């Protein structure tokens, strides 16, 4: 990750001699409509032309924002949603073109290339070539397409978990978020996706009930992929963030209950999954509420909010990196060695962030410290939790620091999501392929590398074509987000998912993030959360498992009749 941030380059630009306070005051006290053309240029974020010299940001093509774009977005107000991300009811390709600021012709070209690759790439895969008869090859081809369809819908819906808050807060533009997530999601799926999985059972389906009836089990696996993918596509079309795991679970339950009987379902596991509807959002909301209140109390109400933000960043990074290194990527099986290694990783991350902040904001921090030493110009209420928030260049520093940390956390979550959730599509796909190859259904199914790459490509394709819909819901339609609010939501969601998974608690990353965004809104007041959006999301959660089950039953009924001619 580059040491440049969308917010850092402006801070550095305004930190020049004689221009630090003047530039901030100009942009903060003049309405956006009165800004000179050289300063204000509306897009996802207004562009700032501060000097002929090119900043690090301009070389990297990162988003840039004026101080005025955040001056009215302090913690007592909200930023206006970008109309380009809203759904206009037009055609899908038109919506994609508007979301990414490309021509409709370019959107059509991208869609055609993705469709062509989806239809032709499986023809060259070993998973298809190794099947001898033409009928088996046709079934393998359809299986690979079913897995791609599921992965496509995972990309369209679930990737908002990582990038939605970054877009909503202004840390990244939508185009940059999608491009970044595309690289990291594919890398995570390909490099970290498990090569051995027990996804065939998913902890829900007792596959031993179907022993000796491979055609029926094969039909159930394909139907589960199709059913989950169908519901995800419907949810994505409305911008509803739903759980991919719940979609698969619902589909498996429907198939197992109708075609295998009551004994074909692990009911205790189903109860645990259902309980996550409550546990996940409540835990996410509670933690994000506390995180955001701490930011308001210890950063916003500090005598020097900018300096407090800069000091808190290494602490947050140290805590996060240490916890993640120990819980998710233990480097040693010996406990005390694993702890020491995790602490070392956290210290390295903290040093990196501390130096990056000092390099990017050092001049502005020094300038503000001198001003505060001479007179109190921060205009904040000292003490208590309800503070007005910093103003001027102090606001710029705070948002710069937290925006930078939010981009880092979004990149990590995106990479981890690709490695984790690709199994929702690839696990059943690999199990179905093993049945076609005549391999006895076992608890562990080996996943070929090319199939992992295929799942990663499906996630990227769905993200590119439809990902903007759910990103808009997470980032803009629940509550208005700024860099501090977005960081609080994302940090809380990652922490809850990490520790709940380690403790074996039923948790949903999607539900946790939605709850975290709501918690940040509640921290600002109950009226800061859009109840109609929350109501739609909760209803979509409640009907996910029943709808997945019904669709799976319907698809299995059709597939069993078709498979009579193939198997």
TrEMBL record:
It comes from the Eukaryota. This is Uncharacterized protein.
